[in-house]
Amino acid sequence: MLPRDRFIAALERRQFSGRVPHFELVFFLTMEAFGKVHPSHRNYGQWEQMESAEQDLHRNDIADLHIAVAETFEHSAIFIHPNPRTLPETLRLAELIREKAGDRYFLMTHGDATYSVPHGNALAEFAYRIADEPAALKDAAAQRVDAALASGEEYRRHGVLDGFALCSDYCFNTGPFLSPAQFGEFVTPYLSDLIAGYRESGFHVIKHTDGNIMPILDQLLEAAPHALHSLDPQGSVDIAEVKRLVGDQVCLIGNVNCGLLDTGTEEECVESARYALRHGMPHGGYIFSTSNCIYTGMRLERYELMLDVWRREGNYA
To answer: Number of structural domains, the chain?
Structure first.
């Protein structure tokens, strides 16, 4: 099986032999690992002024870097980070990665359209709108979903993507930014429509959110994603408990503690990786990853330590 095949099998909760699939939403340590700035950190302020040949050079460099990360760290999937972040550039980059790597990797991009935790003062404004103009807020939510599904149709026509990662964050470490009842009114119906539309177009869908998802776990399952990421231990989410509750309904992705990888001891890092594997792997439907991503400032050696545990212990008979 190619890495892509194993990834899809895990998303569909099918059992197989060999190593558990692995990927990260983002691997930001590209400078340390490859001597190249991550695509998301590059400033292409004069992109439109570049000749097409120069744009092609940048595009090829980004595609090669995505593939190098996947090959070096044995990822089964690539989350595409185009720069500039437009639909045409995402399509071109996906096509380029397919040309270079074939069907070896599962390709996905960001595809969420639902409301997420507002930043700063926007949180208060969002709360006012819930009270003062709920109908307008719901109309806007539906329009956002329609626009995302129209983009999804464009991706479907080109046939280069396998799926989407829905990266709107819903939760703080203490719980969701809306009460479960409000979440069920302003997010869940639109998340359900978005995922249903993507599924009808043949895509696999991963729902990502940090924080404590437990008060809305039932609603996330109601929306029917193929997988949940990242099962955040810093938000008191225990992968063993989530596996017990819903492991027969959805693939789980996570949940090696990023905080421990950053500031814990080596022994704590090893135990966190081991715990995720021990409780995520039984009966399939599991993909190994951190509880967020490999972010700027994390030590590369800690990620490699986590992978050493996965290579030794993340194998089905």
So the answer is: 1
